[in-house]
Design brief:
The structure is a single chain. This protein is of the alpha/beta class. The protein has 2 domains: 133 residues, Nucleotidyltransferase, domain 5, CATH 3.30.420; 168 residues, Nucleotidyltransferase, domain 5 (2-Layer Sandwich), CATH 3.30.420. The chain contains 11 helices and 10 strands. The chain has a 5-stranded mixed sheet with strand order 3-2-1-4-5, sandwiched between helices. A 5-stranded mixed sheet has the order 8-7-6-9-10, with helices on both faces. The longest helix is centred in the last third of the chain and has 27 residues. The protein starts with a strand and ends in an 18-residue tail after the last helix. It binds 5'-O-[(R)-(carboxyoxy)(hydroxy)phosphoryl]adenosine and zinc ion. The site of 5'-O-[(R)-(carboxyoxy)(hydroxy)phosphoryl]adenosine has 18 residues, from helix 5 and helix 6. The site of zinc ion has 5 residues, from helix 4.
Length: 335
């Protein structure tokens, strides 16, 4: 099958995005972020997110189609993120996509946001089977990508996601929302072995994670220093925290690759923008001779290009939804 053109929409959290893909090649990927609005409140305000999606979505979709050089009528299907995410935010995308599909008489494809994150790697040429480290604001998983639309979760976090831990630690250190990227920058100036933080579950014989204790360890460290009237070197703290999280992620991924006997590894999700994680994954791949895929930052954080990539493979399999498609806020990968 060729000349398949799909318009994809993503609105699960605080980015309104639309993309056009043709035969697996991304032609446009327009992203309108709401970060500045939510930063005023220290986190995503769901009601504001829904309203902002509603305002942005028509022009984001128009720009994605125009940039690709097509019209809605040219599309083979319309795809949209159906979950997981904020219900009100998801509903804006799902309703808009359904309206477009109905008006233009096109099939509709409901896409899992996490399958989308993983599918950013298909755009780089990653071919299943491979292992993917999924690290976003809401999820931390090691996934075996069996096929383009078939995923097995080997392990996941038992409490906070890695991105959530970065954001919470950044917040207690006084960095503005979303703190993950800011903490990463600050860490570059610090000594990553200066403060001893726990590396929870790193030695356990499984592929699971736990990050909530690390946030408590940072809080305890800050409180102790305050009680003793000691100055905290924030760059050292950021660097030590980043080192611990990245060591845990990379150690578990290496364990999975060895035990599964898979020599191709990939990463996805917002935390995949982390500079230390990216360089440690390269070292891991060099050391073991793994093939490695790391998407550009735009394809790691939320965007419709990754949704379009998964939708293309769902189209090839004939995996369509109908106009009963609904938002599923707590959708789990593979369900
Ligand atoms: O995948 P994503 O854009 O949204 C979700 O689906 O959750 O991930 C957002 C998460 C946030 O927690 C953000 O702080 C984190 O990714 N993040 C980072 C970096 N850039 C974004 N975490 C650590 N280092 C970064 N450079
Ligand atoms: Zn995401």
């Amino acid at each position: 099958m060729n000349d398949i053109k799909i318009l994809a929409i993503e609105s699960s959290c605080d980015e309104t995005s639309a993309a056009v893909i043709r035969d697996g090649e991304l032609l446009s990927n327009v992203i309108s972020t709401q970060i500045d609005i939510h930063a005023l409140y220290g986190g995503v305000v769901p009601e504001i997110a829904s309203r902002s999606h509603l305002e942005a979505i028509p022009s984001v979709v128009d720009t994605a189609l125009k940039t690709a050089g097509y019209t809605l009528e040219d599309m083979s299907a319309v795809a949209v993120t159906r979950g997981p995410g904020l219900v009100g935010a998801l509903l804006i995308g799902v309703s808009y996509a359904k309206a477009l599909a109905m008006a233009a008489n096109k099939p509709i494809i409901g896409v899992d946001h996490m399958a989308g994150h993983i599918s950013a790697n298909f755009l780089l040429g990653a071919k299943p089977p491979f292992l993917c480290l999924v690290v976003s604001g809401g999820h931390t998983m090691i996934v075996r990508v069996n096929d383009y639309t078939d995923f097995t979760i080997l392990g996941s976090t038992r409490d906070d996601a890695a991105g959530e831990a970065f954001d919470k630690v950044a917040r207690v250190m006084g960095l503005a929302y979303p703190g993950g990227a800011k903490l990463d920058k600050l860490a570059a100036e610090g000594d990553e072995y200066s403060i001893d933080l726990p590396k929870a579950m790193i030695k356990e014989d499984n592929y699971d994670f736990s990050f909530s204790g690390m946030k408590s360890a940072v809080l305890n460290y800050l409180n102790k220093a305050k009680m003793k009237n000691e100055e905290v070197n924030k760059a050292d703290l950021a660097a030590s925290f980043r080192r611990s999280v990245v060591d845990i992620l990379v150690t578990k991924l290496e364990k999975a690759a060895k035990e599964e006997g898979i020599g191709t590894i990939a990463v996805c999700g917002g935390v995949a923008c982390n500079s230390l994680l990216r360089s440690e994954l390269k070292k891991l791949a060099d050391k073991n001779g793994y093939e490695l895929y790391i998407p550009d930052a735009t394809l790691c954080s939320d965007n419709a290009g990754m949704i379009a990539s998964q939708a293309y493979h769902m189209y090839l399999k004939g995996d369509f939804s109908d106009l009963k498609l609904n938002a599923v806020p707590s959708l789990e990968l593979g369900c």
